[in-house]
Amino acid sequence: MKIWNSKYALTEGLIEQEGEEFGEVGSSIIRVGSPLRKEYLYGEGKEWHRTRESALARAEVMRRAKIASLRKQLARLEALRFDA
């Protein structure tokens, strides 16, 4: 089945892949990759998606969360003072 991998959306972008369900039916685990290098994606709607639109929405949530995290980090660094 065709899936959209959003696990690495912030570093590699969305990846369209062929995957197969793994484990029990309805377990939401997908196996992707070549026979020599298999990768498992866990959680439909988190790491993998059935539609491009769903993957785009998840990537946007991830992007906003990363920006918020970086803003907090920047604020901490700006507040940091070194007294001699």
Would you mind describing this structure in some detail?
The chain is of the alpha+beta class and 84 residues long. It has one domain (2-79). The protein has 1 helix and 5 strands; from the N terminus they run βββββα. The longest helix has 28 residues, at 52-79.
Largest sheet: 5 strands, antiparallel
Number of domains: 1
Number of helices: 1
Note the overall shape: elongated
Please give a handful of descriptors for the protein shown:
84 residues; alpha+beta; 1 helix; 5 strands
Helices and strands, with pairings:
Elements: E1 2-5, E2 15-22, E3 29-33, E4 38-42, E5 48-49, H1 52-79
Antiparallel strand pairs: 1-2, 1-5, 2-3, 3-4
Short recap of the structure:
This protein has 84 residues and is of the alpha+beta class. The chain has one helix and five strands; from the N terminus they run E-E-E-E-E-H.
